[in-house]
Amino acid sequence: MPDNYRLSKGILIDEDTLQDRIEVLGGQINHDYAGMTGLLLVCVLKGGVLFLTDLMRRIHVPHAIDFMAVSSYGVGQRETSGVVRIDMDLRQSIEGKHLLIVEDIVDTGTTLNYLKGLLQSRQPASIKICALLNKPSRRVADIHIDYIGFDIPDVFVYGYGLDLDELYRNLPYVAIAK
Fold this sequence. Notes:
With 178 residues, the chain is α/β, with parallel strands linked by helices. The chain is built from three helices and nine strands. Helix 1 packs across helix 2 (49-56).
């Protein structure tokens, strides 16, 4: 039993199921971007890093990666503050590039809506969104997600990149917090 068992209501998505779905997402992205140049995967840190790593191994279209850190949650918070802060910006120009934002989870959509608007103002050729987890019941912002790993219920989850007070990102599965 993992060390975090007392914090968990159980595993929501096991490791094999995660990896199988990421394989499918990679195939969809390969199909949609076949023959294109200038693909840039933009990982939203910190939660998206494990997903990005596994996803990019399955994307065979030539691509570059870059990172952004945005936040609307703080340690101990289980709800977004609604205020989006850019903690780390991209290190390269995105003008004329095809962006694929790689996100761990889309909850209210507020952060992603803000981020997409910010990036759109920098004149990329296109922007699409790939989210491992989607909570449609919590959506406040009207945001379209092009590639969805899993729709999940309105529960607080952690593991596989998502934290529980900055811990347990290393778990190979997604668990539900008590």
